[in-house]
Specification:
Chain A: This is ABC transporter permease. The complex is a heterodimer of chains A (about 325) and B (about 575). Chain A is an all-alpha fold. Chain A has 13 helices and two strands; from the N terminus they run H-H-H-H-H-H-H-H-E-E-H-H-H-H-H. Chain B has 18 helices and 23 strands. Chain B is an alpha+beta fold and about 575 residues long. In chain B, a hairpin with a 5-residue loop joins strand 4 (about 115) and strand 5. Helices cover about 30% and strands about 15% of the residues of chain B. The chains are: A mainly alpha (about 325), B alpha+beta (about 575). The interface between A and B is medium-sized, with 25 and 35 residues.
């Protein structure tokens, strides 16, 4: 009796199979990442933010190429384009011309477009790397605190409280002013960048740490962890294979939201004169320079201001989108 | 009204005589002067703007920096020297004339300039009759002596220059008036009207030094030591009425001051009011709005104010030459600047034009400097251009720089650090300009900004300079008194190299320069002395110790109300405050 039945199926297979496959597909289990991606794709605002972020990263990476295309370099001075009496660019709108698409700096006549492009490198570099430092510290310490609890949790939590109350901007300013000019084979701007990345990252980790600790606290009581434990899984296995994958979502969200804050901190430090060193271009130091010329050459203040504004806004919109996509229960 | 007359002359030059007369008559008839009131651009440079003898009114200063001290012994800021003549008098003082003529010393408390002995070692003065303190008591030669002796009390009264002390008591044998009541025997007062100075060796600038307000009389019973700054007892035309540090100061007339025995001070206003702010942009706004007449600190307007002033109120602007120079010193303790060719490479490689633009162009930044002696100091020689700075139009001489680099043994260039004070924006901009131009010849410059207020313990500290590798120090300098000695001895003489608080950043230790300076100092004839300082300066430049950048100019605001305004070389090209009046 089985044979005919089998034959029947085989004979019909040509017709039935596509339909079946379709059915299979419809009920296929989708990964968290995939669900999130589907949701993110529907969020237009986040997509726009995301593409601006992508564009900025590309601009930062290919800064020399862009400079070469425009035929300018960020540190070349064009004093012939400066009115010697007022130190401001000749021509309207801060000296905007075919050669200098965003005009030139007052005093030195350096091309603003290439300086903005090179400035993006500093912003993106500090923004990303310091967020990365914060994530590494925050994840490790947050997991330890949440998983082991007891005195270790108490210790780490108090340290986090302390760091959150610490006047970090003032601390960085004083730290940078006592830093030597040469450190770990770096010099000048290199040292400043390293210090900024490490210190901004160091003061950022408690934000990640608290989230991770809270997550771990609730996850470690779940049945699947109990099950793993009762099957004899070691601590390392549980943390690495069972807990961490579930932490990826919140960490990603907070990291994307942390980057714009870091970019702002870098701009503030450069504005205060303790960021990158001249002649390295940075949006913050451009703004600081522009203060003296806000009446006579407002374009010079508007351009880096707009650059910072767009970048921070794009990162925030994208970050919000990522959060909504990963955590649909979360209310906005 | 004088300003109207000035503008009338200008109009006459532009249009027909008849039309000008008509216009001027109308203006006078109208009796107000809103658009013409300020006078002309540079009306107060090398001439007197709005000459007038009208007394009364309140003269209003605005500033962003209080005096280092109002105590005549302790003050060192240029504007404070200038201002102190309102409430202090000296044996001799500067002529109330514009420009170079101000340098001519005139008797002030004294009846005449010094009677100098044959050997140049004794200076004798007799005081005028009828000199009085603010309480009506007579000013005696003992008061003058006591005021000068306070210089010895450096433990209590630090901060001021000590030229007289160093000349009269070079080994510092006397302990000062607070520790030794006996008085210093190098200054003699045979009677109440006579004072004599006995110098161990002649010094051609001695009278210039005496003219500094540091050597004003102080009455012993009014000496409140470290509190003297709060109310210096007046010997001049005005006295302190009220003073709140960093906020305000009000001077009123000293009714015991007698106009007839003081031809050097016009003392026209009834009151002198000083308002102190913190923000220089606000200061400039107040000046432009007419809330104040002039800047107390006299360092010139900020970028923003400068633009508004030059665009909309050019007639209220003076652009005088100051006695200050902006320069870079090469500390020889930092390699490779121990090698003269490396220093010369940096001098040739520097683009002066670019630095000038960075400082605000020829107007705000000043002329390109070709050597270290500024234009207000006798002996200045614009033709001493050993590095062809002006000949080259201020551009860097790349070929020469590369040649010197080869001779120095660094054909590929080298790296160094340039120290610049973060308190002076124009300095920082100049540093960036230098960085860019030196990069083109292969000298890689790292800029290190330091707190300007800490200068003497950072760039003035030899150990710090070496540790931080400051091969270049960008700084500004002006004469303490207008002579080669008052300008150059601190910068060039080997005896002035100190471990801390050093000003000879380049660490010049050249016996020929030392000898040249000493000879010039001993020269009593000012013209011959100027010639000797010129030679010393030449030698300093030949040694490549310094890279002169610009001879600084300032954009100075002069309000419509101000009368008798002129910039005086005696005060580094700033206005002579004592002559000012208001309409």
């Amino acid at each position: 009796m089985t044979a005919p039945l089998h034959e029947e199926t085989a004979a019909d297979s040509a017709v039935v199979e596509p339909a079946l496959k379709q059915a299979e597909k419809a009920i296929e289990g989708r990964s968290l990442g995939r669900i999130a991606w589907e949701r993110l794709k529907r969020d237009k605002v986040a997509l726009i933010g995301g593409s601006i972020v992508l564009l900025l990263v590309l601009v930062a990476i290919f800064a020399p190429v862009i400079a070469a295309l425009t035929g300018q370099s960020p540190n070349e001075r064009h004093e012939d384009l400066i009115d010697p009496l007022f130190s401001t660019p000749k021509g309207a709108l801060g000296g905007i011309s075919g050669d200098h698409l965003l005009g030139v700096e007052p005093v030195s006549g350096r091309d603003i477009l290439t300086r903005i492009v090179y400035g993006a490198r500093v912003s993106i570099l500090v923004g990303f790397l310091s967020a990365f430092v914060a994530v590494i510290f925050g994840t490790i310490l947050g997991t330890l605190a949440g998983y082991f609890g007891g005195w270790l949790d108490a210790l780490i939590s108090r340290v986090m409280d302390m760091l959150l109350a610490f006047p970090q901007l003032l601390f960085i300013i004083s730290l940078i002013s006592v830093m030597p000019n040469d450190l770990l084979g770096l010099s000048g701007t290199g040292v400043r960048l390293l210090v900024m990345i490490l210190v901004i990252g160091f003061f950022g980790w408690p934000y990640i740490g608290r989230i991770v600790r809270g997550q771990v606290l609730s996850l470690r009581e779940r049945e699947y962890i109990e099950a793993a434990r009762s099957l004899g899984a070691g601590r390392g296995y549980i943390i690495g294979k069972e807990l961490l994958p579930n932490l990826v979502a919140p960490i990603t969200v907070y990291m994307t939201l942390m980057i714009p804050t870091n970019i702002l901190t870098e701009a503030a430090l450069s504005f205060l004169g303790v960021g990158v060193k001249p002649p390295t271009a940075s949006w913050g130091s451009m703004l600081s320079d522009a203060v003296s010329f806000y009446e006579s050459d407002p374009m010079y203040m508007i351009i880096p201001g707009v650059a910072i504004f767009i970048t921070v806004l794009a990162f925030n919109l994208f970050g919000d989108g990522v959060r909504d996509a990963l955590d649909p229960k979360g209310t906005r | 009204m004088t300003s109207l007359r000035t503008s009338r002359r200008r109009l006459a030059a532009l249009s027909a005589v008849a039309a000008a007369t008509l216009l001027a008559t109308t203006a006078c008839g109208g009796g107000d002067s809103d658009s013409e009131g300020g006078g002309e651009y540079n009306a107060g440079v090398n001439k007197v703007a709005n000459a007038s003898n009208k007394k009364g009114g309140t003269l209003k200063f605005v500033g962003v920096q209080d005096a280092d001290s109002w105590d005549t012994t302790r003050m060192y800021y240029g504007f404070v020297f200038d201002f102190s003549r309102y409430y202090s008098r000296q044996l001799v003082s500067y002529s109330p004339k514009p420009g170079k003529k101000s340098l001519d010393l005139q008797p002030d408390l004294a009846t005449d300039n010094a009677q100098i002995s044959e050997d140049g070692k004794v200076y004798k003065y007799t005081l005028k009759d009828g000199l009085k303190w603010e309480d009506g008591k007579p000013i005696t030669s003992q008061d003058v002596k006591y005021g000068i002796e306070r210089q010895w009390a450096q433990k209590t009264l630090s901060g001021g220059p000590t030229y007289i002390k160093d000349v009269l008591d070079p080994d510092g044998k006397w302990k000062g008036p607070y520790e030794d009541k006996g008085g210093f025997d190098g200054i003699k007062t045979p009677d109440k009207k006579t004072i004599e100075f006995h110098l161990p060796k002649p010094n051609g600038d001695f009278e210039q030094m005496l003219a500094m307000p540091t050597n004003s009389p102080v009455r012993e019973d009014k000496d409140t030591k470290s509190k003297y700054t709060l109310h210096p007892f007046s010997s001049g035309p005005y006295k302190f009425k009220s003073y709140t540090p960093n906020k305000s100061l009000l001077l009123v007339r000293n009714k015991h001051w007698d106009r007839t025995n003081d031809p050097l001070r016009k003392a026209l206003p009834d009151k002198i009011k000083v308002t102190l702010l913190t923000n220089p942009d606000e200061r400039d706004k107040r000046l432009i709005n007419g809330d104040a007449d002039l800047d107390l600190n006299q360092r010139g307007m900020e970028v923003q104010g400068r633009q508004t002033a030059l665009k909309q109120h050019k007639g209220n602007v003076d652009n005088p030459q100051t006695g200050f120079i902006s320069y870079v010193a090469f500390p020889q303790s930092v390699k490779p600047f121990d090698n003269i060719h490396c220093r010369k490479a940096a001098i040739y490689g520097a683009d002066h034009k670019s630095v000038q633009t960075a400082r605000g162009g020829p107007t705000a930044g000043g002329e390109l400097a070709v050597n270290m002696l500024p234009p207000t100091v006798p002996g200045h020689d614009v033709n001493d251009d050993q590095y062809g700075i002006r000949k080259n139009g201020g551009k860097a001489n790349v070929a020469k720089a590369k040649e010197e680099l080869k001779k120095c043994g660094k054909p590929g260039g080298f790296s160094t650090t340039l120290a610049v004070r973060n308190t002076d924006k124009a300095d920082v901009k100049s540093a960036e300009a230098l960085q860019a131009s030196l990069k083109k010849v292969g000298i890689k410059v790292e800029i290190d900004e330091f707190d300007g207020a800490q200068g003497s313990s950072i760039v003035g500290n030899q150990a710090t300079v070496k540790r931080k590798g400051y091969g270049m120090v960008l700084y500004g300098w002006g004469p303490d008194f207008p002579s080669g000695q008052g300008y150059g001895i601190e910068l060039w003489h080997s005896s002035k190299i100190r471990d801390n608080g050093n000003n000879n950043y380049a660490l010049i230790d050249d016996p020929k320069i030392d000898k040249g300076l000493e000879d010039a100092i001993a020269e009593l004839d000012p013209d011959k002395a100027a010639e000797k300082y010129r030679e010393v300066n030449k030698r300093v430049m030949a040694g490549g110790y310094y890279l002169p950048l610009t001879y600084l100019k300032v954009v100075q605001w002069r309000s419509d109300r101000l009368t008798n305004v002129y910039s005086a070389d005696s005060f580094s090209g700033w206005y002579d405050f004592a002559s000012l009046g208001v309409k």
